[in-house]
Each structure stands twice: as structure tokens, then as C-alpha cells.
Amino acid sequence: MISDIPLVSDRLILREFTSADEEAVHAYCSDPAVTRFTDWGPNSIEDTRAFLVDAIAQASTPQRDEFTLAAVHRRSGRLIGSVAIGVTSVQHRRGEFGFVFHRDFWSQGYATEACRLLLRFGFARLQLRRISATCHPGNRASARVLEKAGLEYEGRMRSHLFVRGAWRDSLLFAAIDNTH
User: What is the value of pTM for the model shown?
Assistant: First the structure.
């Protein structure tokens, strides 16, 4: 079991979720503006509770290969979003990550800071060679976050996801660890 959690940067702490996080998580997961470009949501309270049950269960999973973490504003202690990184292929040392933040914290560099923590964790602790992330083609803010975090744009995946009754493309970004 990997015990490097929490991950800490200048302004963020990425920690395990607890059941006490329900109200803070629901505040952003139920927001239509926040979930506009996601393949889930806006969440009902039941959806948010199910998300937390799954995230909390990950923490006690032996041979854990998925990490869904609470993004906490370091100075205030406020939970402001969530991030996730997971191993998609052990053999090929591939992983992927994603993030979502409360809209009060958009355009302030928090997502970029969180992505950099996830990349460092994925390369150093999970020993991944390649880490990818996708975003909706219309979500220029997330695409910019991924680029600022150090991922390179690789292309457009056509009909990648079936979301809310329609096929949707995704933009693919990835970073490679050339040190291992």
C-alpha cells in the first residue's frame, strides 16, 4: 500500500476523502456549470454519497492502483475539488488522471498545481511511464490547465464517450517520464 498521501504543494493538500466531506463535495458536484463538460452529473445527493463511498473504500484497498483525493485549500482548510489518478496498464506503465474544482476556485492556478502533484506522484510513486488526461473539446480552460501542467496535446479522439444520450469527442493530452 502506498502511504504518501496526503500530497502537499504551496497552496493545496490532496488527501483521502472522509464521510464528513459530503456537503463540500456536493456543492461543486451538483453545480451544472461545474459538470457541463464532464461525463457525469450534475449529482444528486445520492450520487455524491456513492462517489464518497467509492473514494473512501479505495484508501483501504490492498495493492491500490486508484487514488481519488480531496483537493483542500491549504490556508483555509476548505475542500475545493477532487482529483483522481489511476493505473490503466501495469505492464505498459500507463495511467490517467482527472480533476474537478468548485467554480469559486477556477482560473487561479489550483487545477494546474493539483495536476503537477498528480504527475509527480504518478511518475515517482506509481512508476508510470505515460500519464494521460482527456477533456471536452469545448473546455479550453481544462485544455490550458493540462498544457500548463506539462502534458502535450496528442489529438482528438472521435466518438470517445457516450454522454447524456450523445457521442462526444475528447481531446487527449499526455506526459512521458523519460527518467525511468
Answer: 0.95
